[in-house]
Specification:
- The chain is of the alpha/beta class.
- The protein has a domain at 121-376: Zn-dependent exopeptidases (Aminopeptidase, 3-Layer(aba) Sandwich), CATH 3.40.630.40.
- Helix content is 41%, strand content 15%.
- The protein has an eight-stranded mixed β-sheet with strand order 1-2-6-3-7-10-8-9, with helices on both faces. Strands 4-5 form a two-stranded antiparallel sheet.
- Helix 7 (290-310) crosses helix 9.
- The longest helix is centred in the N-terminal third of the chain and has 42 residues, at 12-53.
- The radius of gyration is 50 Å and the shape is globular.
- The N and C termini lie far apart (190 Å).
């Protein structure tokens, strides 16, 4: 008879039980891993979604780069706008409150049409001018002020501040263009064929050099004449101008209607003002170009003296002294040397202003009288 074994003693049962337990544990572990993996994926998905909704962080820019970027953007925007809709450019601080250039130009043109305008230009000495070949010093230009507008007279006055040419006293020029000798004395003796190109002038008792005062007077007279509508040819506006007496006269002949040389006499009696008149000498008055100008030059001198007298300026004698001058000998326009006093005469700013007003009055008289003479055929 075969013997029967007990169930608890079957060796396969423990093995099966162990395998089952292992399978259960493995399934649980896998489930946990899958769960954790799903949670991580969910978190990553949420993070990516959140990142997409937030603005991207811009990289740091160098100083000024942000401003340049904005400017470029603004330019691009502006360039795409139609002209009529573009915003006006930002005005720099330095120009705030100023008139735009186009409007300013229009305003100036409008004003110029209503007001007197003064323009200046340099006038060089050139060899083709009449009598130019007799000049020895002529490297500097004169200055011509032209007046235009309602107050312009269309007449030019040459204002010649006497002296003021360095080295001029050591140079000699021919007294008369025809080579004849002087007929009167003066700084150069009668009978001389040559004279000083430009003398240095005298010195006032207070130590002021004459060229300084003649220049001061010339500048004041210039401004008054311009204010009255005259063009003005200024021979000298500085302490030194390299133009001798012949060069000064040649320029006046070519660019002015009359020539006034300003001087003070070397006497010490406060004698008053007078002009150098044309000598009463037949040969001299018949010399070219004096024969064509001596009468009109006399009219200019007389008019200047009257203008000064009417202003209360002291006048010496009858206001004239005959003198054979280089200036007169080469002049083809009305021309005078006027002495406005002497070494002891006052030359304060007030006195110089008074003299200038009197001279300007004389210029007015001269052109009025000269015009009347031409109309009457005298």
């Amino acid at each position: 008879m075969r013997s029967r074994k007990k169930a608890g003693s079957d060796p396969r049962i423990p093995v099966l039980a162990g395998m089952i337990i292992l399978l259960v544990l493995a399934a649980g572990t896998a489930g946990i891993l899958i769960h954790r993996s799903n949670e991580r994926r969910a978190e990553e998905t949420a993070a990516e979604a959140e990142k997409e909704t937030e603005p991207e962080e811009e990289p740091e820019q160098e100083a000024g780069a942000e401003t340049k970027t904005e400017e470029r953007q603004a330019k691009i925007v502006a360039d795409t706008l139609p002209n009529e809709t573009k915003a006006p450019a930002e005005v720099p601080e330095s120009t705030v409150g100023t008139v735009p250039e186009e409007e300013s130009t229009l305003a100036e043109e409008s004003t110029a049409a209503e007001q007197t305008v003064v323009a200046s230009e340099l006038i060089p000495f050139t060899e083709e001018l009449r009598f130019a070949e007799y000049s020895k010093i002529h490297t500097d230009p004169a200055v011509l002020y032209r007046v235009s507008g309602p107050g312009a007279r269309g007449l030019t006055v040459c204002v010649n501040a006497g002296h003021g040419t360095r080295g001029g006293a050591s140079v000699k020029t021919q007294c008369h263009p025809d080579g004849t000798p002087k007929v009167t004395g003066g700084s150069t003796a009668a009978g001389a064929l040559t004279a000083t190109a430009v003398s240095g002038g005298m010195t006032f008792r207070d130590g002021t050099p004459e060229p300084v005062v003649t220049l001061q007077e010339a500048l004041i007279l210039r401004d008054i004449l311009i204010g009255r509508g005259y063009n003005v040819l200024m021979i000298r506006e500085t302490d030194d101008v390299q133009l001798d007496n012949i060069a000064r006269t040649v320029l006046a002949n070519s660019y002015a209607d009359c020539h006034i040389a300003l001087h003070w006499d070397s006497s010490e009696s406060d004698k008053g003002a007078f002009f150098m008149s044309v000598p009463d000498n037949g040969g001299y008055k018949n010399m070219d170009p004096v024969k064509d100008t001596w009468e009109i030059s006399e009219l200019l001198g007389e008019s200047l003296i009257e203008g000064l007298r009417n202003r209360g300026v002291k006048i010496w004698s009858d206001g004239s002294l005959d003198m054979d001058l280089t200036q007169t000998s080469y002049s083809s326009v009305a021309s005078v040397d006027i002495e406005l006093g002497d070494r002891v005469s006052p030359h304060t700013p007030e006195q110089l202003g008074l003299l200038a007003e009197g001279l300007a009055d004389g210029v007015d008289l001269f052109f009025s009288r000269a015009g009347n003479r031409q109309e009457t055929g005298q």
